[in-house]
TrEMBL record:
<feature type="transmembrane region" description="Helical">
    <location>
        <begin position="175"/>
        <end position="197"/>
    </location>
</feature>
<dbReference type="GO" id="GO:0140359">
    <property type="term" value="F:ABC-type transporter activity"/>
</dbReference>
<dbReference type="Pfam" id="PF01061">
    <property type="entry name" value="ABC2_membrane"/>
</dbReference>
<protein>
    <recommendedName>
        <fullName>Transport permease protein</fullName>
    </recommendedName>
</protein>
<keyword id="KW-1133">Transmembrane helix</keyword>
<dbReference type="InterPro" id="IPR047817">
    <property type="entry name" value="ABC2_TM_bact-type"/>
</dbReference>
<keyword id="KW-0472">Membrane</keyword>
<keyword id="KW-0812">Transmembrane</keyword>
<comment type="similarity">
    <text>Belongs to the ABC-2 integral membrane protein family.</text>
</comment>
<feature type="transmembrane region" description="Helical">
    <location>
        <begin position="64"/>
        <end position="84"/>
    </location>
</feature>
<feature type="transmembrane region" description="Helical">
    <location>
        <begin position="105"/>
        <end position="133"/>
    </location>
</feature>
<feature type="transmembrane region" description="Helical">
    <location>
        <begin position="139"/>
        <end position="163"/>
    </location>
</feature>
<dbReference type="InterPro" id="IPR013525">
    <property type="entry name" value="ABC2_TM"/>
</dbReference>
<dbReference type="InterPro" id="IPR000412">
    <property type="entry name" value="ABC_2_transport"/>
</dbReference>
<dbReference type="GO" id="GO:0043190">
    <property type="term" value="C:ATP-binding cassette (ABC) transporter complex"/>
</dbReference>
<keyword id="KW-0813">Transport</keyword>
<feature type="transmembrane region" description="Helical">
    <location>
        <begin position="229"/>
        <end position="247"/>
    </location>
</feature>
Amino acid sequence: METLKSYFFRDMSIMLGRSMRHILRSMDTIITVTIMPIAMMLLFVYVLGGAIQTGTDKYVNYLLPGILLIAIASGVSYTAYRLFIDMQRGILERFHSMPITRSSVLWGHVLTSLVSNAMSVVVIILVALLMGFRSPAGILSWLAVAGILALFTLALTWIAVIAGLSAKTVDGASAFSYPIIFLPFISSAFVPTASMLPAVRAFAEHQPVTPIVEAVRALLSNQPVGHDIWIALAWCAGIMLVAYFFAMRAYKKRV
């Protein structure tokens, strides 16, 4: 068992290194992922922010959690794309002809998504700081925020794995992210849900993005988190486990 574990972690680190080299050789991936959320943040803060009432002094403080989720949702689509390309070129079959742990190939893509999205999140937070974002949160609150965002990234990345393994075309592999990117717009990410029509408000308050946004926002503003953090963690963990199960089934079927 110990030998099997050591092989798995060794193979996974090799696959992670391979995927990260592709990312670092093509930095336009990270740049593309960060440009859209940053542009959206600039638009909402400097153009639309004055007309939006959120009860906060700085709209960028209110807006930032939703922008980070949009960036992650956009970033994971590249995982589906890269996995689809590996499938089309027969690279996965080539790996499986070697003495490596099979699941390590998928974990290499998943961990690469986690690292690359973390880089995008850091860049966006730095831009937000230039725009006036300030947080009184302590180190533990920031670590909690990092944990929630990491879990959210893993959940979406495993969905991306399903898309990458199941898609028939390159466009189909990345198209799954469009509805996910749209979800923050029907949540408390940009405006309070109290300002929405009853039907829209009911959807906004019972979809996964709202409790995640509220938990991150409360942590960054050093306010009591309440039950939102547990709902957020339950959504992320539940989605991740279900997506992982179906991703592994799709993987065994395709390879």
